[in-house]
Design a protein that fits this description.
Strand content: 15-25%
Distance between the termini: 29 Å
Number of strands: 12
CATH class of the largest domain: Alpha Beta
Radius of gyration: 23 Å
CATH superfamily of the largest domain: P-loop containing nucleotide triphosphate hydrolases
Helix content: 25-40%
CATH topology of the largest domain: Rossmann fold
Length: 361
Amino acid sequence: MKIGIVWLPNVWKSTLFNALTKNYSAEAQNFPFCTIEPNVWIVNVNDKRLEQIRKTVNGEKIIPAMCEFIDIAGIVKWASKGEWLGNKFLANIREADAILQVVRIFENKNIIHVNWNINPKWDIEIINSELILADIETIEKRIIKDSKKAKSDKNFKKLVEIYKLVFEKLNSWILVNDMWLSDEYLENLYDLHLLTNKKFIYACNVSEDMMNISENELKKLIWITNNNTKIIPISAKLEEDMIEMKKEERKEFLDDMWLISTGLDNLIKSSYDALGLEYYFTAWEKEVRAWTIKKWSLAPIAAWVIHTDFEKGFIKADVVNWQDLVDTWWWSGAREKWKVRLEWKEYIVKDWDVILFKFSS
């Protein structure tokens, strides 16, 4: 899963992600445009179930699911037209699965806002405008390219008609993911990697005392009306304070703040939900591992994630709920308690499943 990060300068984004990933390779300075080349972070998805399963099966190691964050320089007005090399930065996130907008909510007189005042609605409008302008340029080039072929090929003629419709709506400042487009239209747009055709997630960088704010309250604050959009509160200062803490200290600190999990955990969960992803587990003495799949995936597709041969030769799968496996202390114990189910090709994998695949080579 790849998440592209976009932001206005001085939202404390670099400080935030340095703290979250325990990675100080990204610069964190109090002036715009200090990040020239994109930073890429591979972040483990923390899940307490993995350690419980490992203890149960006496596994040697844990391999969690992972999320890749691609961080580009701060967006400014006219970034799409090349201002401050902005268009180059935007190109770095075209292959991302979703776009994460880091929006500043907190007040701090020592951290200069690029527009001199805190206005999250305006910030989001600037970022979205630049993403739209970048998409207009992309689709305009494709229209010019394919219009020549459309004169003699009806398939290209239809493609150009789709592109022109989307082009017109983009020029009306409508994001592609806010357009009412059929699955056929969306499929034909896929290879353009339009920025506004991706899922959006908003991380609102708030002060510590706002961490318990509800998602509905945040939506009102940043003027987001789309019910399917994921919005989460996150505090760079809070995360930075926890970076040197041990596991037990961090838990106690979160308890004192009346928080269940860290901002990064909530961010990754929201990213998975936004993209319709989940993961299941495999567990044996050698390793306990989480495998990312699309929600509603059938068992052979889940097996394919491990190896293509698993899908081709799929026969059946032994499936047990992770909690049942932990409670019965081993596969054999789970079988004795009739907790292990035999599932076939039609089985829809769940995110609490621990699976042992049977296949022919």
